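Entry for magnesium ion complex. Fields follow.
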Amino acid sequence: MSDARTAEPRSRVVVLIVAAGKGVRAGGGLPKQYRSVAGLPILRRSVALFLEHRDVTQVRVVISEDHRAHYDAALSGMESNRLGAPIVGGLERQDSVRLGLETLNQEAVSSGTPSAELVLIHDAARPFLPPEMVDRVLDALTTGPAALPVLPVIDTLKRESGGTSSETVPRAGLVRAQTPQGFWFKGILEAHRRAAEHALAVTDDAEIAERAGLSVSLVAGSEDAMKITTEDDFDRAERLFARRLETRVGTGFDVHRLGPGSGVILGGVTIPHDQALQGHSDADVALHAITDAILGAIGDGDIGAHFPPTDPKWKGASSDRFLADAVRRVSDRGGVIRHLDLTILCEHPKIGPHRDALRASIAAICGLTVDRVSVKATTTERLGFTGRGEGIAAQAAATVALPAARL
Ligand code: MG
């Protein structure tokens, strides 16, 4: 790919994601930034989006003190040395941003390292902005102190009064403001400090910049960068996300030998039997087939490549960790497991009485609802190695939705 920018690294770009809002829908529940869209928390999607951008040096999230557990849960397992510790925000959005900027500044001073040169301030509730929008904001900051992504106002604007329209508001010269809004770090820090001193209440950071006399350049926003606020927005976001996914199906197959013992482990469930499955790990042939099906769907090798049977570390290992690792690989790609379908091939033990336990166990390991997990069993009419009771075979199919951009 030819790109002039690759030759010239950006300045130090820090992203502040503002997620300190307490907004919960009527009836309680999670604050919206911690709710999921298409299987992943909105905040996690927003963070991932910036971590994937090559020009971003660091991502920090400003959270409410009360939300630490939500934050940890939403971002669990995300590994990046560019994701810094969360910063505790304030009562209003404006306070949260200022505290975020002050924290970045203090950290730079106390560690003797240069502070951010550019800062992008982003609403956590906009998880689907296209990366090109970040490029446009950063490009505008090469020539000016502040950049704001905007969209045109298409609909005719009316002033409403007591349920009737009282006036048509001319829309010429009006635009809709989005985020991320970009700034030269020192300029916006200074502007926020001044706004706090004068107790100015504003609705976004561009307004802070405007009031400080900074020139705010406009760049094109995107409808995809919609802010998820209402229940309708959640539905719209689900549909938007679904359009961007590509469906992949992977298959897996595994066999383990039966030998001396008093039970087999299938799907993480111990089933009493007069034999046991033999293998380097716990020989859970069902979980091995499912793990390979998922790895197949994302084109990421197989279970033996990630957990070599030659490695003594995996001797006797419980196979749920292999499956959990494959599940993590899917979510690391921004994907979602839609369905798992398992068939166990054996004469004995009878699987039917344990089917529900297997479904529940597999669903729990994968973080899926039970209706997305199917468990079937068949004999092979006493034919072949399974028919003779020498071993148990399992085959599985995994249906996985992956972001099309990653394919
Ligand atoms: Mg195996």
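NOTE: The chain has 13 helices and 19 strands.
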